[in-house]
Amino acid sequence: MTLEQLRTFLAVARMGGVRRAAEQMNISQPAVSARISSLETYLGTELFSRVSTGVVLTRKGVLLRQHAEQVMAILERIKGDVMSEDSVSSLLRLGVAETVAQTWLPDFLRQLHRNFPRLKIEVSVDISLNLREMLLDRSLDLTILMGPISEYSVDNLDLPPFELAWYRPVDLPEPDLGVTPVITYNRNSRPYRELMQQLQDRHGITAQIFPTNSLSTGFEMVASGIGVGILPQELGRRLVEEERIATFDPGWLPTPLRFTATYIGEPRNELIIRAARVAQQVAVAHHEAIYA
User: Fold this and answer.
1) Cα separation, 282 vs 292, whole angstroms
2) Residues paired with 91 in a beta bridge
3) How far is residue 96's CA from residue 205's CA, in Å, rounded to a whole number?
4) Which residue, among 149, 172, 142, 7, has the nearest Cα to 73 in the 3D structure?
5) According to DSSP H, which parts of 49-189 are helical?
6) CB-based burial of residue 174 (10 Å sphere; 0-12 exposed, 13-18 middle, 19+ buried)?
7) Which SS3 state, helix, strand or coil, does residue 228 take?
8) What pTM, to 2 d.p., does this model score?
9) Which of the ends of the chain has fewer CB neighbours closer than 10 A, N or C?
10) What is the dihedral of CA 16, 19, 24, 28, to 10 degrees?
11) For the chain, how far is it from start to end, CA to CA, in angstroms?
């Protein structure tokens, strides 16, 4: 019985099927099946039963899972206590919301590379809703998104918030939010929902929101005169200095955007935990530098 067999067994048990386990482990399905078959042969018992949706653990499989999780937890503690960071060689699948991608992501990647020079990093930029689904589907290891995610298996590290600000075209000095389109985050986001409720409460059903998945596109829409925007203050500062857009104050602001470094906490993975802590440290340093 080998550690790779136990890792593969746990992956199949958690994912509920050979195909999804193979995708998570980045190996072929025959390799997964071969490891499970060898483990069953060694133990002299079946560990999984096939069902219409995939596989489920047998009674013996449930018992093995308990032991295997304890073994893997001990291994992760050994790695955390003993292994030096520059010896870590692995793949980190990182998912990042665009707000972070356009601000402190380069600093984070630079620090990760310094801490883990042998680490391979695969970055996906997407909306927080999609990042959440990819994390829970275990196709991402670490996500930086509008959080937190409230799932029993998920851990969240709080990150500094992003302040929002109102922006207008330079030739529109007094926007009427009852009729002027408001450009903001995509419709499947918390900022969109909050803004829609606030606008309707304050300006009635004539209020309009133009959502976008691209913050840079949103700023360009404001600059071109399509409407006003409620967008991250940090990203709008340069365009204001260039006098392409201007700020204004309608008397209220949505709450700042809350972000988290979020990852699957069970099973424990020391590399992902360390990477999340680096993200938190970089985000705090960036926030202090911007708002000092």
Assistant:
1) 15
2) 120
3) 34
4) 7
5) 59-82, 98-101, 105-115, 128-136
6) exposed
7) strand
8) 0.75
9) C
10) 140
11) 56
Q: Confirm if 278 and 108 have CB atoms less than 8 A apart.
A: yes
SS3 track for 46-84: CCEEEECCEEEECHHHHHHHHHHHHHHHHHHHHHHHHCC
Residue 227: which H helix or E strand, with range?
A: none
Q: How many CB atoms lie within 10 A of CB 10?
A: 18
- Helical (H) or strand (E) element with 282: helix 270-291
Distance of alpha carbon 109 from alpha carbon 198, whole angstroms: 37
- Summarised one tens digit per residue, pLDDT across range 207-225 is 899 999 999 999 999 999 9
Residue 42 burial class via C-beta count within 10 angstroms: exposed 0-12, middle 13-18, buried 19 and up? exposed
The region, left, alpha or beta by phi > 0 then psi within -120 to 50, assigned to residue 248 is beta
Model confidence pLDDT, tens digit, residues 115-170? 888 888 999 999 999 999 999 988 899 999 998 998 888 999 999 999 999 999 99
| The two structure tokens encoding residue 265 | 């906490």
Phi/psi zone of residue 274: left (φ > 0), alpha (ψ -120 to 50 degrees), beta? alpha
Identify the bridge partners of residue 120 per DSSP, sorted by sequence position. Answer: 91
